[in-house]
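Researcher: Let's do a round of design. I'm pasting the structure tokens now; please hold your answer until I've finished.
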């Protein structure tokens, strides 16, 4: 699924960044992907994906998202 049509960011891209980089917010996801927010409509979706990923983490997970 395309999350950001301005930067052509997919849900897979966002989840990969969350797993590998443990960003603290949507802005850090953009930075990790080498782009920046343009219209900003996707920020809410990125935050939702981040919340889902953190909710699904176990305490001893290796992704670092449970900080």
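Researcher: That's everything. Go ahead.
Model: Designed sequence:
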């Amino acid at each position: 699924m395309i999350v950001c049509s301005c930067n052509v960011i997919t849900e897979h891209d966002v989840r990969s960044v969350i797993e590998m980089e443990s960003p603290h917010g949507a802005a850090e996801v953009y930075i990790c992907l080498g782009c920046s927010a343009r219209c900003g409509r996707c920020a809410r979706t990125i935050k939702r994906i981040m919340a889902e990923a953190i909710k699904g983490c176990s305490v001893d997970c290796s992704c670092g998202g449970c900080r």
